[in-house]
Amino acid sequence: MSNVKLELDGKTIELPVIEGSEGEKAIDITKLRAETGYVTIDSGYGNTGSCTSEITFLDGEKGILRYRGYPIEQLADKSNFVEVAYLLVFGKLPSASELAEFNKLIADNSELPEGVKKIIDSFPSDAHPMGVLSSVTAGLSAFYPELLGAELSASEQTKAIAQLMGQTKTAMGYFFNKTQGKTPKSTDANLDYSTDFLSMMFNKDGEVDADVAKALDVLLILHADHEQNCSTSTVRNVGSSHANVFATISAGIDALWGPLHGGANQAVLEMLEEIQNDGGDYKKFIGKAKDKNDSFRLMGFGHRVYKNFDPRAKIIKKACDVVLEKLDVKDPLLNIAKGLEEEALKDPYFVERKLYPNVDFYSGIIYKALGIPTNMFTGMFVLGRLPGWLAQWKELRESGARIARPRQIYTGATERNYVDQNER
Ligand code: CMC
Question: Is 366 in the pocket of ligand 1 (CB under 6 A)?
Answer without folding.
Answer: no
